[in-house]
Amino acid sequence: MKTLKIAIQKSGRLNEKSVELLKNCGLSFENYKSSLISTVSNFPLEILFLRDDDIPEYVQDGIADLGIVGENVISETEVDVSYLQKLGFGKCTLKLAVQNNSDIQNINDLNGKAIATSYPVILKKFLDKNNIQADIRTISGSVEISPGLGLSDAIFDIVSTGGTLKSNGLKPFADVLSSEAVLIGRKGEESNPLIIELIQRIQSVLRAKETKYVVLNAESKNLDKIVKLLPGVKSPTVVPLAEEGWVAVHTVIPERDFWEKISLLKSAGAQGIVVMPIEKIIL
Length: 283
Ligand code: ATP
Ligand code: MG
Description:
By secondary structure, the protein is an alpha/beta fold. Helices cover about 25% and strands about 30% of the residues. It is built from 8 helices and 15 strands.
């Protein structure tokens, strides 16, 4: 079968997490900082390390079969690729922001104003949709300093924590697009068995990340109450302890209701609660 190629970011915010995800999928490869291509030894896959801006087009044009890239970059490059899987990292939002003392209060106040951005395509679409006529000034980096230099009245840029905006005296006033890293594929290749296999591996890693393996001890008389609190993958495993009248309960619970569940379990009589990370969940 033809070897697949996946394009990931060479260096930058998505590189480490992309490499980690592929490694967690059981793929073995060398990750030299200097190499542009790496061959996976235990799966027919080659990894191309690229600038993130180039990834959507490489996938669209079939130079790579798959890619990992931010949704923001896909929208900006306007390529025709298929979205295969959201990956849960690289989360950020494209926002409009102005200086703290600006009289621009809402998006309509942007009429006739200059907006600096590295995302002119996404911004233009947003302004057109809202019937706003503004002057888009495309710059490739350090967008946040442009209002202070008098180059623009507002900026349109990526925000994750908001720290960069704050330290430049800016405040966000409208969210335009939220983004995270996604796995993209070339249109029409979705039924390739190797791609399906890889997506399944990725999904099992993502599922595992969202859940924890929990083991707890309880008196048998409290078991019913405790089991009701535990929505496991199927149902919890209950094992007798050496001490008469006691059991150990093993289960898997979603990380998001973890703390709430732990305190409810404790008040239902659970003791010695051990929480462990899970590597993979294969359904
Ligand atoms: P490259 O050299 O590959 O072109 P880059 O400088 O364009 O890299 P990075 O800054 O490494 O890009 O960001 C890569 C992606 O990470 C962004 O396109 C976006 O999807 C995501 N991201 C998450 N948080 C942030 C943030 N605070 N600032 C910028 N990008 C972020
Ligand atoms: Mg880039």
